[in-house]
């Protein structure tokens, strides 16, 4: 007779509330994605989550409320169990007896084989054998794709759909770890590496990145890129800290900030892209300025002229001068004086007589000043320095109108 349809009347479907592993953030019985660039602590985050689930430790945004304990299955293709996974779990306070590892399966003849997402029967067997399993971590998901093209929507959907059904059947959270694409900015949903089908299949997706508003620090952000099972939630900030473990040395752990952050994933990516453009432009300008000054000091009039021809903003170059430690030196006094820039430790250029020179660097100017009695009050010292500077700098109006300083 051939194939026929199989329909279900909605009246026969039992309604139930959404269940959560991490309330409002990571649902139970669903697929969740966690993606970020290397070296931001994604695997340390998964160790933190696994430890909390294994011990029933409260989540960082609700420390007063403990959760139900449960077992965890980790499928890791990159981290060594003995010197990486176990030490990190111990550092995070996890229950070693509740956390299990799986990278291979066993055939009937006893031979082993690498487990992939296509080996659904093996993954389901683990769900049955591990009592009270609540979390499965796949890190990274790309290592378990087998021959499936991770950039092909149809292929990825065909692989993830059965996995999502398995998660629902056993009420297990599947957390798949991934990387971000190399493109900058854009919508957060499109930054997850591989096919868009990964994010489409997931019911929640989280993006991990350095805090673009706090550059140069260790602050990181875990921001929601997708979450369609509950009210919109805010992201969390964290730092990767060190924890001493007996016999294992210092191990990385996650230090969460309890207060959620206001920035969104899209907003943070836009800020990151803007920072990258500024940094890139600054690097080009810095190379240009160093090249101009490499042979010795150059007058600011010439620098301004060259900057206009090269398309660089004079105000930007003045800020860059301070960052690079470039010295501004005035040769001569009054209307005949000229400002020069030179690289730190630079030499060459016109001969400069120390008696006819003002170095604009504050620490250099201070070294030209005679000592003042330590008994003088602050106002007297400032008056003295101002008077000294006025006496040597010549025409005040001409000096202050010179933008090069």
Provide a quick synopsis of the model.
The chain is an alpha/beta fold. It folds into 2 domains: 14-262, Rossmann fold; 273-400, no CATH class. It is 34% helix and 21% strand.
Cα-based radius of gyration, to the nearest Å: 31 Å
Return the CATH class of the largest domain. Alpha Beta
Low-confidence stretches: 347-358, 361-405
Major sheet description? 9 strands, mixed
Number of helices: 11
Shape: elongated
What would CATH call the architecture of the largest domain?
Answer: 3-Layer(aba) Sandwich
Percent helix among the residues? Answer: 25-40%
What's the name of the CATH homologous superfamily of the largest domain?
P-loop containing nucleotide triphosphate hydrolases
Strand content: 15-25%
Topology as H/E string? Answer: EEEHEHEEEHEHEHEEEEHEHHEEEHHH
Q: What is the average of the pLDDT values?
A: 83
The number of distinct β-strands equals: 17
Gap between N and C termini: 90 Å
Strand order of the largest sheet: 5-4-8-9-3-10-11-12-13
Number of structural domains: 2
- Which structural class best describes the helix and strand composition? alpha/beta
Task: Kindly identify the CATH topology of the largest domain.
Answer: Rossmann fold
Keywords:
405 residues; alpha/beta; Rossmann fold; nine-stranded mixed sheet; four-stranded antiparallel sheet; 11 helices; 21% strand; elongated
